[in-house]
Design goal:
The structure holds two protein chains of two kinds.
Chain A (H helix, E strand, L loop, with lengths): L3 E2 L4 E5 L4 E3 L2 E2 L7 E7 L6 E7 L7 E2 L2 E6 L4 E6 L8 E10 L5 E5 L3 E6 L1
Parallel strand pairs in A: 2-12
Antiparallel strand pairs in A: 1-4, 3-9, 5-6, 5-10, 7-8, 8-9, 10-11, 10-12
Chain B lengths: L4 E3 L2 E4 L5 E6 L6 E7 L6 E7 L2 E4 L8 E4 L6 E5 L8 E8 L9 E2 L3 E5 L1
Parallel strand pairs in B: 2-11
Antiparallel strand pairs in B: 1-3, 3-8, 4-5, 4-9, 5-6, 7-8, 9-10, 9-11
The chains are: A mainly beta, B mainly beta.
């Protein structure tokens, strides 16, 4: 089974509108972390936001917020007031304990977001 | 604060040749990671170092890939000999290696094309 599922391969959104990127995850580990990264065409993975499994409140970082629904195992990224510079690939990732005793980051397949002027 | 540095940014080689990538993590970061990102996919962990020791190399094709982090700072990843399917972006990341909010920070990557 996929550990991280991103069901939207691509999205087109009008500039200044809000956008929600979907992410569902699968784990039996009670302690885990969820991350969102942005990857522009330049290739660098840019950290956006983090949510811990025990956090009571949804994480927010500027225009980014994470809609964390633990029972549904979903961690959707919400970008408010989208800008042209938001056009990029977005990856959801989960950190959990691996069989080797380390904490391992597993990525989804990504969503390509295109902002239309 | 300087980010994760990688070189080269681009490399084109023919199959069966050798190639090496270099990574310098963020100062003070104990944990270093190498990922392989094939076009259209998310990054996949190849190897994880804690200081100069290997923590996880379960997905590293050890018959052709090797990595080292001799002094616990910078690291090199080598492929010898390269295959066509090794064409990918190789990303290096680093983190403090402690705490529940331990975040990995990535370098710009090296785009490898094997012809």
């Amino acid at each position: 089974a996929q550990k991280i599922t991103q069901t939207q391969p691509g999205m087109f959104v009008q500039e200044k509108e809000a956008v929600t990127l979907d992410c569902t995850y699968d784990t039996s580990d009670p302690s885990y972390g969820l991350f969102w990264y942005k990857q522009p065409s330049s290739g660098e993975m840019i950290f956006l936001i983090y949510q811990g499994s025990y956090d009571q409140q949804n994480a927010t970082e500027g225009r980014y917020s994470l809609n964390f629904q633990k029972a549904r195992k979903s961690a959707n990224l919400v970008i408010s007031a989208s800008q042209l510079g938001d056009s990029a690939m977005y990856f959801c990732a989960m950190r959990e304990n691996s069989n080797f005793g380390n904490e391992k980051l597993t990525f989804g397949t990504g969503t390509r977001l295109t902002i239309i002027p | 604060e300087a980010g994760v540095a990688q070189s080269p940014r681009y490399k084109i080689i023919e199959k069966r040749q050798s190639v090496a990538f270099w990574c310098n993590p963020i100062s003070g970061h104990a944990t270093l990671y190498w990922y392989q990102q094939i076009l259209g996919q998310g990054p996949k962990l190849l190897i994880q170092f804690q200081n100069n020791g290997v923590v996880d190399d379960s997905q590293l094709p050890k018959d052709r890939f090797s990595a080292e982090r001799l002094k616990g700072v910078d690291s090199t990843l080598k492929i010898q000999p390269a295959k066509l399917e090794d064409s990918a972006v190789y990303l290096c990341a680093s983190s403090l290696g402690r705490g529940t909010t331990d975040t990995q920070y990535f370098g710009p990557g090296t785009r490898l094309t094997v012809l």
